[in-house]
Amino acid sequence: MILDTIEQVKIYLIQELLVSRDDSVHVEYLSGGVSCRVWKIVQNNNRWVIKQALEKLDVQADWFSDVERIHREHRVMKQIELIVPNSNVPKVLHVDYTNHVYMMTCAEEGVETWKNIMMSGVFNVNTAKSASALLSQIHSQSDKIDEEQKTEFSDQKYFNQLRIDPFHRFLIQKYPELTVNITKLIDELSLQRTCLVHGDFSPKNMLVQKNGEIVLIDFEVAHWGNPVFDLAYCLGHLMLKAWHLKKYEKLLGLIRAFLDSYKGEVRNLLPHLGLMLLARMDGKSPVNYIRDESLKQIIRLVAISWITNASPDANVLEAIEQQFQSS
């Protein structure tokens, strides 16, 4: 059953005995993602979110991924609940393997994504610290995951479908001169596996609560892999917003807080960050808020220089500061 309309969602809730026919149920479509249909459900004092995976993602390019990835997502969320018990990760309430659906708790009313908050001109250092602290916990505590789950999460099929193929391999087609460099980055992500990696650690997947702490969502790309990906992914989004908003000092403050609060070690971060920037210009899912071609070209040049020339132990903060000073 495909949950494409409000009526279909209501029928599904009744069929799964999650509500009765006599219940007053409010259903609201939640936008923002390209890989799933997401619905908010309100029934009396209950508030839930239902999520169903899409086979073809909502982007212009042909981009497909196995819908079974949604089961990876809810299994990862349950593991995080065990290894980081006080983390702000939604709790899974209902699982449907036939229709590739699950239901989870909903964040408090009125929350916004960290992305939307930054785009509105608010730059809270404590939010950056909260995001980094949670990421540190997930990375460092994931050695507590039982071996059977580690083996399952070590299958990087969904990570390949949703990240390596549309980002790295797609860029190789556009920039064949970068083949050796990008292939090296792919190998580092594929072979250097040390912890649970979120895989989509973006401000759009962080809901900011009234106390400034984040609720982390969207774990469908999670896998056992290299933590450098999560840091590069998040820092790339912060840099793009700095360029777009021209708020270099404000975003540098968030980047400093994020890096200072991360309690872990990664290697070769700068080239992976360069890859993330280039992917958001020319990958299968380019960022939609940067349209100025001259700015795009500036970002491309920075990205390519970091992919090709950065040393494994380069100081990432200094490199970012240098680029923003020249912007």
What can you tell me about this protein's structure?
By secondary structure, the chain is an alpha+beta fold. 49% of the residues lie in helices and 14% in strands. The chain contains 12 helices and 10 strands. The protein has helices at residues 6-15, 69-83, 114-119, 125-141, 147-153, 157-174, 179-191, 228-245, 248-261, 269-282, 293-309, 316-325, and strands at residues 25-29, 36-43, 46-53, 92-96, 101-105, 112-113, 195-197, 206-208, 214-216, 223-225. The strands form 3 sheets. Strands 1-2-3-5-4 form a 5-stranded antiparallel β-sheet, with helices on both faces. Strands 6-8-9 form a 3-stranded antiparallel β-sheet. β4 and β5 (101-105) form a beta hairpin. The termini are far apart. The model has no long low-confidence stretch (mean pLDDT 91).
Number of helices: 12
| SSE run | HEEEHEEEHHHHHEEEEHHHHH
| Assembly state of the chains shown | single chain
SS elements, strand count: 10
Give, in spatial order, the strands making up the sheet with the most strands: 1-2-3-5-4
Tell me the β content.
Answer: 5-15%
Percent in helix:
40-55%
What layout of secondary structure does this protein have?
Elements: H1 6-15, E1 25-29, E2 36-43, E3 46-53, H2 69-83, E4 92-96, E5 101-105, E6 112-113, H3 114-119, H4 125-141, H5 147-153, H6 157-174, H7 179-191, E7 195-197, E8 206-208, E9 214-216, E10 223-225, H8 228-245, H9 248-261, H10 269-282, H11 293-309, H12 316-325
Antiparallel strand pairs: 1-2, 2-3, 3-5, 4-5, 6-8, 7-10, 8-9
Helix pairs in contact: 4-9, 6-7, 6-10, 8-9, 8-10, 9-12, 10-11
